[in-house]
């Protein structure tokens, strides 16, 4: 699954266009490398998102095309939130 779609489906970022813009702004890193919106996500990847004043680091637990709001939180595990 594409990174921008994963961020939207997992509800880490609410809109796919915002996820795409974040990737293009070099604010998202996967496994230590700057990611593009089309980067393929797989289970076990570490995704780091740098916001203006904070950082969110998550581990991808599963990749599904469609999930409910309740299931979305099971798609990732928060490693670091500051």
Automatic annotation (TrEMBL):
Family: Belongs to the RqcP family.
Keyword annotations of the record: Protein biosynthesis, RNA-binding, rRNA-binding, Stress response, tRNA-binding
RNA-binding S4 domain: residues covered: 1-66
InterPro entries assigned: RqcP, S4_RNA-bd, S4_RNA-bd_sf
Keyword Protein biosynthesis belongs to the record: yes
HAMAP family in UniProt: RqcP (MF_00871)
Function description: Key component of the ribosome quality control system (RQC), a ribosome-associated complex that mediates the extraction of incompletely synthesized nascent chains from stalled ribosomes and their subsequent degradation. RqcH recruits Ala-charged tRNA, and with RqcP directs the elongation of stalled nascent chains on 50S ribosomal subunits, leading to non-templated C-terminal alanine extensions (Ala tail). The Ala tail promotes nascent chain degradation. RqcP is associated with the translocation-like movement of the peptidyl-tRNA from the A-site into the P-site.
Signal peptide as annotated in the record: none
Subunit structure comment from the entry: Associates with stalled 50S ribosomal subunits. Binds to RqcH, 23S rRNA and the P-site tRNA. Does not require RqcH for association with 50S subunits.
Claim: tRNA-binding is one of the keywords in the record: yes
Protein source organism: Clostridium tyrobutyricum DIVETGP
Gene3D superfamilies documented for this protein: RNA-binding S4 domain (3.10.290.10)
Example of a GO biological process term: rescue of stalled ribosome
Protein name: RQC P-site tRNA stabilizing factor
Any Pfam family the entry gives: S4
């Amino acid at each position: 699954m594409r990174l921008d779609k994963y961020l939207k489906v997992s509800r880490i970022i609410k809109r796919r266009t915002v996820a795409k813009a974040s990737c293009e702004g070099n604010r998202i890193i996967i496994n230590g490398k700057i990611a593009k919106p089309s980067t393929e996500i797989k289970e076990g990847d570490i995704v780091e998102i740098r916001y203006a004043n904070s950082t969110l680091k998550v581990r991808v637990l599963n990749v599904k095309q469609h999930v409910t709001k309740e299931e979305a939180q099971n798609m990732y595990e928060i490693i670091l939130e500051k």
